[in-house]
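ok new one. same drill as before - structure tokens go in, u give me an amino acid for every spot. 156 of them this time. try not to just spam alanines like last time pls lmao
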């Protein structure tokens, strides 16, 4: 068959299937037409309202999981090159006074293994890995157990 004829047949077939799909009222898993814009998610309450108010730390579910932020980050300034409000409490110079966890030592090491005085620029955007914990039910059924080691309890 001629190459031009093959391309014409393929183009016509594509147009016909596109028209058939457009006429189909395909529903998403949410039960709405797939062309309907998504609704904004419901705003959930943070576990801790303000830093230091949440009490217990949220347990990790696996050993290499970044800790979650146990307080609201609402009204925190945006993290930029000049300012990172997280460091006001979590920097090595302030964490004891603020009774907050110190930024992990891994945040002061470059990819090449060089130790730095300040947090590495690759680790400066805290909310890239650490997320605020919210009070929300699971979205789907989940039986994940995790592999976080159990901490030994102190015996008196």
């Amino acid at each position: 068959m001629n190459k031009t004829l093959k391309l014409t047949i393929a183009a016509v077939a594509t147009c016909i299937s596109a028209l058939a799909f457009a006429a189909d009222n395909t529903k998403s898993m949410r039960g709405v037409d797939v062309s309907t814009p998504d609704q904004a998610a419901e705003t959930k309450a943070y576990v801790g309202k303000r830093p230091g108010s949440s009490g217990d730390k949220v347990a990790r579910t696996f050993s290499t999981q970044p800790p979650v932020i146990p307080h609201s980050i609402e009204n925190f300034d945006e993290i930029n090159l000049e300012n990172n409000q997280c460091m006001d409490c979590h920097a090595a110079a302030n964490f004891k006074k603020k009774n907050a966890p110190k930024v992990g030592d891994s945040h002061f090491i470059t990819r090449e293994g060089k130790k730095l005085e300040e947090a590495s620029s690759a680790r400066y955007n805290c909310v890239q890995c650490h997320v605020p914990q919210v009070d929300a039910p699971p979205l789907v059924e989940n039986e994940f157990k995790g592999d976080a080691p159990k901490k030994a309890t102190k015996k008196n």
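The chain has a mean pLDDT of 79. and btw Residues 3-23 form the longest helix (21 residues).
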